[in-house]
Amino acid sequence: MTRVNKYTLYETVAPLIGFLASMIILVVIVIIVGESPAKAADAVWKMTFSKTARVATILSTAIPLFLAGIAVAFGFRAGVFNIGVEGQYFFGGFVGAMAGIYLPLPAWLHVPSVVFFAMIGGALWALIPAILKVARGIHEVITTIMFNSIALALVNWLVNGPFSGLAGKGSLEAQTAHIRPTAAFLKLNAGFRALGWDVPDSVYLDYSLIVAMIAGFVVWFVLFRLRVGFDVRAVGTSPDVSLYAGIRVKRIQLGAFLASGALAGLVGLQEVFAIRGFYTYEIASGLGLDGIAIALIGRNSPVGVVFSSLLFAFLKQAGYGLQVYTKVPNSVIYVITGLMILIIVVTNELVSRYIRALRKKEAV
Amino acid sequence: MDLNTVLEFLLKGLDTSAPIAFAALGGVFSEKSGVFNIALEGIMIVTAFAIIWGSIMFGSIWLGLAFAIILGVAMAAIHALVTVTYKVDQIVSGTALNILAFGVARFLSQNVFGQETQSAMNPYAFPSWHGISVFSLLLIPITALAWFVLYKTVFGLRLRSVGENPESADTLGINVVLMRYSGVLISGLMCGLAAAVLYPSRWVSGMTGGRGFIALAAMIFGRWDPIGAVAASMLFGFADTARINFESKIPIPSQFVQMFPYVLAIVVLAGVVGKAKGPAAGGKPYEKGED
């Protein structure tokens, strides 16, 4: 084995150890709560891999999680800690929904348009924190959290007030008018069945899957195949060195922040355009926080985020399984996730210390 | 407006400011030692739960408070271990702790009280004065004490020195690791006190409502100074009290009123702070130069 390969191997150890350790902790928690591990394992199995529909549900659940993860990861790569994905997808989803409701376009143009507008909305919501970061040095962690709270209140007002589609419908949940049929994200399930994967129609594998795949590819391509991606990664690794190397650090960080927001704008598409067909401020919340966890576990690489978002979708389904069939509450998943991140980052540090020591020895 | 109304408003404002202010003081100690602590929110979630749980379990609000402080310090200790000893990115560790805390409080609530989102009522309460907890009144002397410790004691000098220039501090024989642990652990202690003034009769999921993050904004606005941070927290607290008092009297949609403290935080950070500079070595793990 060559030296480079050996080191890469060591570096993949941390996520594996993190995963295994947190699974052991999960078993311990199950025992402490007074549930049998076998029953818990059965509950997890039932909700995750027992049927094709369950596996497909994991894939479906992973779509918004992947988009949230890739949004955070792209920011991270440029040294931007975008905790504002939450607010960005609430606002981006709203802007996208507006395009879906009011633009009279043919389907081939309407679907790309709503994607575009959702990205614009997400980027807009990232704009002020991005400017405050580069122009005034105010840490984005604080500003984006404030913007999350503001976004929730704002869309709440928009949906209840000027853009309420409730008039005379008798529904209690405030929502916008329905999107035009031309903007609907249709299901790809029939296509999967034609390919031999027997996905039932109840599962949402829709256009948002394609959006996620394109977004993932574009992020990978930009980061690893374009000059600007090199700059982004350089800025994320060391802003000081990048500055000396002639990279316009602030410009790169501003751009990466907005791109991260634009990607975040895609998170709500599945729920708005495939599942509900209208926008409400009650679309799934908390995906921004999930995205941070997913990016960290996936080590901010597009490929890593594919795996970690699938892992996260699996954990979510496993959590439901535990909630339904055992005494273990769903919230255990957040306990496990938090611990998993801590274990991974600490293991990472220990491994890189070990590698440094090894390199030093080999250099002698 | 008679005198009583004014007094009542002042006390209510103090009471609303206190949780933010205690957390902000915690943030000051942690950041002065060179460690960002964005886990203040998560630690508060756990301490807010622990004070209710501990009170009911031990039959005393004081033991409940002690329990909350212990758990707060324990959470902070994880942050210190991960960031100071293992030198992991401080924001990453803080985020992981926030996720962990969200799960831990709900998980415990489900197992202790049979409900994931709220606890049982806590029959025990701190002595109160004119309707506010004595702990809110203690904010003033505690702020003075924090200022004194930070600027007038050897401990405070050492704490600040490891946040500004750990290399020199180390050369002078100051234990950088010990000082940073102290700073972070004090922030856990302060989050315990924040729980004492937050709402000590029942824990509800989400009751901290981002106060830990507002506290960070207050700390920056207060330029990492205990008195400044508490004054900034009071700006937020009093603004919030005014909002609650006048909400029904002004013709503005409630959602805009809800946004108010967050918009205020942004405006304050953007406009007034300008070139706010934190401790020079803040956020950077200290590597002892061995090679």
Structure description:
The complex is a heterodimer of chains A (364) and B (291). Chain A has 364 residues and is mainly alpha-helical. Chain A has a domain at 61-295. In chain A, 74% of the residues lie in helices and 0% in strands. The longest helix of chain A has 32 residues, at 332-363. The radius of gyration of chain A is 22 Å and the shape is globular. Chain B is mainly alpha-helical and 291 residues long. Chain B has helices spanning 3-32, 40-58, 61-85, 90-113, 134-152, 154-164, 166-171, 176-198, 211-221, 226-246, 254-273; strands at residues 128-129, 132-133. Chain B has a two-stranded antiparallel sheet with strand order 1-2. Chain B starts with a helix and ends in an 18-residue tail after the last helix. Chains A and B meet through helix 5, helix 6, helix 13 and helix 15 of A and helix 4, helix 9 and helix 11 of B.
Task: Report the major sheet of chain A.
Answer: none
Gross CATH architecture of chain B: Orthogonal Bundle
Treating each run of at least 4 consecutive H or I residues as one helix, how many helices of chain B? 11
Q: N-to-C terminal Cα separation of chain B, in Å?
A: 69 Å
Structural class of the helix and strand makeup of chain A? mainly alpha
DSSP, total strands of chain A: 0
> What is the fourth-level CATH superfamily of chain B?
ABC transporter involved in vitamin B12 uptake, BtuC
Rg of chain A, Cα atoms, Å: 22 Å
Shape of chain B: globular
Question: How much is the average pLDDT of chain A?
Answer: 91
Overall helicity of chain B:
over 70%
Low-confidence stretches of chain B: none
Helical segment count of chain A: 15
Beginning-to-end CA distance, first to last residue of chain A: 20 Å
What Rg of chain B is obtained from the alpha carbons, in whole angstroms?
19 Å
What top-tier CATH class of chain B fits best? Answer: Mainly Alpha
Shape of chain A: globular
Largest sheet of chain B: 2 strands, antiparallel
The pair of chains with the biggest contact is: A-B, 46 and 46 residues
Strand content of chain B: under 5%
Number of domains of chain B: 1
